[in-house]
# Entry
Amino acid sequence: MEIDKSKVTTSLDKWIKLNVGGNLFMTSRETLLKDPNSMLARLISDSDLISDKDENGAYLIDRDGKYFSPVLNYLRHGKLILDSGLSAEGVLEEAEFYNITHLIALVKEAISKRDQQTSVVDNKQRVYRVLQCQENELTHMVSQMSDGWRFEQLINIGTQYNYGSEENAEFLFVVSKECLSTNPREQESNDRAKVLQQKGSRI
# Structure
């Protein structure tokens, strides 16, 4: 039985080999043509864009193959996937090099979200509050602590009030909570609370 060579050639033409920085990739012509304005689409369809090929017939591209994988995967399924340890800035550099407009926008959006999350974490601080109470109020104070507040220290400041024949010791009740704050007055209040806590630890 004679094999139709024209059909074999046509089938092979559907697949393109790329040698990116020494890393070999194989993908369909259809995938590379997903963004017709990209450098990759022009590479396989524009005769004016000349590229050398290696001994296996793969197009030689002098870029980092590690960062090419997310670019190629985006052309395959239209989603941006950044593996752990892969720099978003590195992927952005490649997206801009290959001129893939929508991917550029997706990576920039991912970088912006990451930076916003980092900023929120950096702005978090522990807020301290000092409450004054009497000995017979301690149980009530603990039970009424709202969500997020944490007991830090109880400082005995002595007996200052007499009610009849009963003496009630006074305490400073130090609590803290992690939250966002950019208020200088609040920071000053926190600093005073920390000083009280440090003094209390020496009482």
Q: What stands out?
A: The chain has eight helices and six strands.
